[in-house]
Amino acid sequence: MIDFVIKRLLLALPVMAVVSFVVFSLLLLSPTNPAAVIAGDYATPQAIAEIRAKMGFDQPLIVQYGKWAQQLLHGNLGVSVYENRPVIDMIAERAEPTVSLAICVVLVTLFAVPLGVISSWWAGRPIDRLVMAFAAIGTATPIFLFAYLLIGLFSTKLKLFPTYGFTSITAGVGPFLSHIALPTLTAGIAYGALVARVSRSSMLEVLNQDYMRTAKAKGLSVHKMIFRHALPNCAIPIVTVIGTRFAALLGGIVVTETVFAIPGIGRLCVDAILHGDYPVVQGVIIVVSLVYILVNLAMDLIYPLIDPRVRAS
After folding, report:
1. Separation of alpha carbons 30 and 150, rounded Å
2. Is 278 exposed, middle or buried, given 0-12, 13-18 or 19+ CB atoms closer than 10 A?
3. Where are any strands of DSSP class E within 207-250?
4. Which residues on adjacent β-strands are paired with residue 86?
5. What is the pTM of this model?
6. In a structure prediction context, what are the per-residue pLDDT tens digits for the chain, which is 313 residues long?
7. Could you tell me the fold of the domain covering 94-262+306-312?
8. DSSP structural state of residue 171
C-alpha cells in the first residue's frame, strides 16, 4: 500500500508541473498588466516600466516561470499585487468558510444515495418518477435561482435564517448553522440531484445482473440484496462522483459564495480576477489542483476497501 501511495504521488508531480506552467503562462499572457495595477491609475509609462523591471516582468517567460516555480517549491505562492500581502495567507484566511460549506454540502448530499437506491428498486413507479423529477430539476436549474428562491422564502418571508454572511463555528454552533443552512441547501440540491441520478443508474445496472435475479428468485431478503450484494458492487461510481464534487466544492462554490456573501476561496478568486491580481489567481488554481490530486489519491485508496476486485487488478 505504501508503494502504491508513493507511486501515485510521483505520478502527480509531472501533472502539477504541467498545470503550474499552463496557469503561469496563460495568466502572464493576459491583457491585464500587473505592473500598471501596482503603479496605480495615474502612473506614467516610465513608472510602469520601472516596476516591470523591478518585478522581473520584462524577462523571458521561461526565466520568470523558473523563479516562480522555485518559490512555489518552498511553499511561497507570491505576493498579491493588489493588497501587497502573501497569497498563502490570503488563501488560508478564506479556507474556513469554503471548507465548512463543502463538508456541510457533502453531508447533505449523502442523503441522495438512499434516494437513488429507492428509485432504482421501485423503477418505473411513482416514487421513482418523483426522485427523477427532483434529479432533473436539480441538475437543470441554475444554482443562483435556487439561492434566490430560498432567500425569498426562508430569509425574507419566514425570517428563519440570515440572508448573507458567514459565522465561524468557534462563535457557537447555533450562529454557524443559521448562516450555513441556506448556502448548504442551495448547493446540496444541485449536487444531491447528480448523486441521486448516479446512484440510481449504478444500482439499476447491478440489479439487472444475473446473480441479483438469482438471489431474488431464491427469496433473499431485500435488506441483504441491497446492502450485501448490490451496494458494494455499485459503490465505486457513487464514491467517485461524491469525491470529485467535494474537490470542486473546496475549489470554491463561486456562485453560492457570491450570492450569500461568504468570504471563501471562490470569492477570493473572483475578486482577484476583477482586480487583475494574477498572483492570487495563480495561487488559488495551484491549491485547487493540489486538492484534486489528493482527493483522487484518497479515492484510489478507498476503492480496494470497497471492492476487492480492484485490489486484485
Report:
1. 38
2. buried
3. none
4. 79
5. 0.83
6. 677 677 777 887 888 888 888 888 876 666 666 666 666 666 677 777 777 777 677 778 788 888 888 888 888 888 887 888 999 999 999 999 999 998 999 999 999 999 998 998 898 899 999 999 999 998 888 888 889 999 999 999 988 899 888 999 888 899 999 999 999 999 999 899 999 999 999 898 888 888 888 888 888 888 788 888 788 888 888 888 888 888 878 766 788 888 898 898 888 888 888 877 888 888 888 888 888 888 888 888 788 777 766 655 5
7. MetI-like fold (1.10.3720)
8. G
Instruction: Say how many C-beta atoms besides its own lie within 10 A of residue 105's C-beta.
Output: 26
Q: How many residues does the chain have?
A: 313
Which residue carries 474537490 as its cell?
247
Can you tell me the distance from the alpha carbon of 136 to that of 128, in angstroms, rounded to the nearest whole number? Answer: 12
Q: Which helix (H) or strand (E) holds 53?
A: helix 45-55
Q: The dihedral of CA 63, 65, 71, 73: what is its sign? A: negative
Please count the other Cβ atoms lying within 10 Å of the Cβ belonging to residue 73.
Answer: 7
Structural domain boundaries of the chain?
2-76, 94-262+306-312
Amino acid at 108: V
* 269 and 82 Cβ atoms separated by less than 8 Å: no
Phi, psi of 124 (to 5 degrees): 85, -10
End-to-end CA distance of the chain: 14
- In order, the DSSP letters of 152-168 are IIIIIIS--S-SS----
Is 313 in a helix, a strand, or coil?
coil
